[in-house]
Amino acid sequence: MNKTNRALNRIVLIVVGALLLALGAAAVLLFAWPPAADAWTTATEAGRTWIQDAVTASAIGGSTLSWLIVGVLAAIVLLVVLLIVLIARLGGGRSRTVLRAASSDTELGRVRIRSGFVSDAIQHSLQGRDEILFSSVSASDVRKQPVMHISVTPRQNTSPRQVLDDVGRLVANLSTLTGEDVPTYISIRSGLRAKLAHDQRRLA
């Protein structure tokens, strides 16, 4: 779960897909239609000549360095920064904070509960259960609110319903302890780790 804007995400995917489709169609056209290949060759030669003339005309102090090259490099750096910012805004990100509670009635002020505390508490509660091979806890910010994700890998032939109920009770106990209901989603996983598991459990 993250704070991805679905509409914006789909628009970006549609634009990128359309660009890739157009590039693929242009490549096929160049190989399949000789007039298109000739036009492409003429255009690239003209473009190469223009670039060479522009670089020569904008040379810095008679050196090989050109203001045109500097401008292109600056534009590339700016584009990379904008892409990083856009990806960060689209993808959200993990948060180390599971619970934020503000209080003006006590000297404590703002209280934060870290994901490490929740992870340790849940693992301590699961350490006596042989049917649980692995568990992890992470937190993500969704619309500026922390959301907790609990992932559990049980042994084979373990009832997923029972595992879900047990972890749900742990979450309910955590809510009672903190006095706050933290949005939580639980994933129960099965794979090679469960198939090849030995008698010794592993929690991390």
Write a brief structural summary:
By secondary structure, this protein is an alpha+beta fold. It has six helices and six strands.
Distance from N terminus to C terminus (CA atoms, Å) equals 21 Å
CATH class of the largest domain: Alpha Beta
The total of helices stands at 6
Poorly predicted regions? 198-204
Strand content: 15-25%
Integer tally of domains:
2
Q: What sort of overall outline do the alpha carbons produce when their principal axes are compared?
A: elongated
> Could you state the oligomeric state of the chains shown?
single chain
Structural class: alpha+beta
CATH superfamily of the largest domain: Cation efflux protein, cytoplasmic domain
Annotated CATH topology of the largest domain: Alpha-Beta Plaits
Query: Which CATH-level-2 architecture of the largest domain?
Result: 2-Layer Sandwich
Order of helices and strands: HHHEEEHEEHEH
Mind summarizing the main beta sheet?
4 strands, mixed
Report strand order across the widest sheet: 1-4-5-6
Give the % helix: 40-55%
Query: Radius of gyration over alpha carbons?
Result: 28 Å
The average pLDDT value, as a whole number, equals 76
Keywords: Membrane, Transmembrane, Transmembrane helix
Transmembrane segments: 12-33, 65-90
Organism: Microbacterium rhizomatis
Protein name: Alkaline shock response membrane anchor protein AmaP
